[in-house]
User: Which sequence fits this backbone?
């Protein structure tokens, strides 16, 4: 299968190459795509060098599928051109997520919504993916009424410039800034721009994408998203109010039985999910499972996942795997 990766030289794009290789996706030809300044460079895939090409050239090479992680403006311009050429696009930007005609997919939750006619498929925001994977089985079991989530997001979510800023600040080196503030020894309660309602775009993504993926307007979400100086992944403190009461042992059982979720919850031995342990893994890790004793039918959880993998590259590749298994590519 001919696979194009648009944004192949970026942090997420290169993770997509790694995940495609690790999962042995049936790639017969890789077509790495990047901006004009990177055309001609080479990327390695499974021990072979591939030349980076322009988006135009990639279309002429007729890939079966194109996995995008190149920013919203590139997706808005090029995804329709790839789709018009009969190429299925899986896009990691926010460009198409809330388009009512486009599917927003976490395979374990709503892959069944996909059809062969879907030519542009949206990959959800990283902080949404890891939360929804955990919410979905609990919603089915107990009916979610309201979610309050605070996130602790890795600098890798911003990109290589933010990683460099953190490393420079840690070493006392002046350099380019990805953030308006220092990030080392600090936290920044702003991810993306502020909207008129006082929330950031990142927070409203969690609110709106969760409803779309779970297909239930009754799931009310309020979010505070925060950038912290870590690398391995995003962490989330989640408070969930259910319609029905629950049994903690049953909650643990439901989560442990959920594909892609691993329960790490042994407080007595200080065992709980942490970004350093989630780094470069595909699973979503859940711990600190406990009843909210301030009100009935309410649960507290701690959710950690590698935002570059299940939060982006792996989820996109899993969508491609689903389509490939259906012979729709
Ligand atoms: C972030 N979720 O962490 C956003 C985009 N990757 O910056």
Assistant:
């Amino acid at each position: 299968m001919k696979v194009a990766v648009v944004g192949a030289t970026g942090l997420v794009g290169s993770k997509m190459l790694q995940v495609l290789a690790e999962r042995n996706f049936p790639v017969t030809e890789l077509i790495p795509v990047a901006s004009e300044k990177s055309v001609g460079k080479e990327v390695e895939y499974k021990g072979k060098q591939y030349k980076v090409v322009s988006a135009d050239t990639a279309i002429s090479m007729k890939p079966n599928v194109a996995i995008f992680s190149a920013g919203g403006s590139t997706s808005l311009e090029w995804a329709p051109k790839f789709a018009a050429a009969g190429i299925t696009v899986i896009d990691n930007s926010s460009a198409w997520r809330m388009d009512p005609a486009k599917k927003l997919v976490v395979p374990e939750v709503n892959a069944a919504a996909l059809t062969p006619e879907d030519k542009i498929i949206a990959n959800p925001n990283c902080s949404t993916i890891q939360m929804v994977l955990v919410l979905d089985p609990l919603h089915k079991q107990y009916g979610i009424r309201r979610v309050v989530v605070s996130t602790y997001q890795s600098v890798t979510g911003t990109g290589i410039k933010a990683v460099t800023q953190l490393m420079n600040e840690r070493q006392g080196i002046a350099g380019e800034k990805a953030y308006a503030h220092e990030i080392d020894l600090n936290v920044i309660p702003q991810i993306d721009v502020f909207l008129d309602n006082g929330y950031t775009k990142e927070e409203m993504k969690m609110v709106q994408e969760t409803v779309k993926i779970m297909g239930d307007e009754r799931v009310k979400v309020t979010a505070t998203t925060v950038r912290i100086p870590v690398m391995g992944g995003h962490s989330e403190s989640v408070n969930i109010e259910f319609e029905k009461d629950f049994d903690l042992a049953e909650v643990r059982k439901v989560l442990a039985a959920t594909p892609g979720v691993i329960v790490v919850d042994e407080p007595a031995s200080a065992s709980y999910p942490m970004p350093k342990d989630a780094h470069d893994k595909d699973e979503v890790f859940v711990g600190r499972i406990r009843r909210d004793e301030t009100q009935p039918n309410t649960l507290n959880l701690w959710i950690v996942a590698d935002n570059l993998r299940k939060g982006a590259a792996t989820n996109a590749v899993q969508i491609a795997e689903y389509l490939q298994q259906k012979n729709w590519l």
Observations:
- The radius of gyration is 20 Å.
